What does this fold into?
Amino acid sequence: MEKRLRLAPSPTGLLHIGTARTALFNWLYAKKTNGKFLIRIEDTDILRSKSEYTCNILEGLKWLGLNWDEEPIQQSKRISIHKNYIKRLLENGAAYRCFTSESEILELREKQKIRGLPPKHDNRHRNLTSKEIEKFISQGRSSVIRFKIDEKTEIKWKDHIRGEIKWQGKDLGGDLVLSRRALGYEIGNPLYNLAVVVDDNFMNITHVIRGEDHISNTAKQILIYRALGFKLPIFSHTPLILNNEGKKLSKRDSVTSIDEFREMGYLPEALANYMSFLGWSIKTPESEILSLSEISKIFNLSDVNKAGAKFSWEKLNWINSQYIKKMELTKLSGFIKKYWIDKGWESPSKEWDLKLTALIKDSMILLKDAIDQSKPFFSMSQIQRDGKEFLENIKDAKESLKYILIYLKEENISKINDNNAKEIITKISVNHSIKKGIVMKSLRIAFFGCLSGPDLIQSWELLSENKRDITLIKRCLI
Ligand code: GLU
It folds into this structure.
């Protein structure tokens, strides 16, 4: 039978890494089994759901390469269907109308708090007669629909990640609210646990993979599945993503949306590759740099850990740098060029762009590192303290720069290449008895303002393209 998986995001915020990782595990399992990956937008919370969040979620998934196989389902379009199922539960006695008011619920909670008990509804209206119901309605009291939960029932399922999970009916907080408040004999808008079961059944979902924070919902949903006579899917609950302190990753950890990762300069392939390791690991890793299609071949739900997955910036950065290193040069140059355009930096030629890209790519971790790395090739960097000290205190440092200028002029050299650069440095060193190291360090300071930076000869070649090398050397001699 075809395996059908789904992501069911609520569009109440931007696509978050937790949801993206859930999407990824669903997608990987669907691909591995030649199944389908579907999307259902759970937008029944009218106040908090926004269409721009739906767009953001779908765009983020696409950016990560997690394409879906059928047109997304919009849950809000199915409200009347959900209500029909609630009617069915009312009719067969599995659910009932409950008129407990908000203040009565608060009162109950207070009493439970005093006795140190967890909040739990007392199911006070489970057995109302039709007369009593009529009376409440005529008094203008609103009602929700509650689903009966047998206190003595034990709910058991075989979770594909966690093995057997058991949940006691008495621990589910009393009879479950299926719909919001409504007046008269109306049924209010259906709530998550009912809608999710009806829609997963409608979409023929065979496997539900979602975060471990949904385990108690699964217990409730299994009871609804049974009451409606639906076939149960196979459930798997993924571990939470944790921060360094072992707490659930949140906005405070400066990671929120996939958009932010994108803006920070992470590549989608690298982020998806890294996310797959958030809770899953390869038994015998040859390389951790794997494409989604490679991962989908070796991905197994049984290899997903039960314990929380620690988010590591270090590992994500390392993976991103590996992707930058192996990226095709023209493609990488295209990304980098966008930053230059934003900065108003103009380059002399396409060939030059590729050369500079090749020069800086190995020291890039994020795409946006290209800004700092390429800055000295477009604008004059300040001379740093170590650079100043070197030029002032080291014998022959400034002189070596002077000799270079003279040599360039006398020999009429306007373009530097690997050969003539090395020749110039050797000649200055030999003719004036200055150590090669001093000539090179002085040049480095002229170009980059400090003693570090990319390959000196290649940099010189690029800088000489529009004579910036001369300007940069001259500024050290003033
Ligand atoms: N809308 C729910 C959420 O975003 C879906 C959970 C589920 O996968 O059933 O948490």
In short: The CA atoms of residues 99 and 143 lie 4 Å apart. The radius of gyration is 32 Å. The domain at 385-475 is CATH 1.10.10.350 (Arc Repressor Mutant, subunit A). DSSP finds 20 helices and twelve strands in the chain.
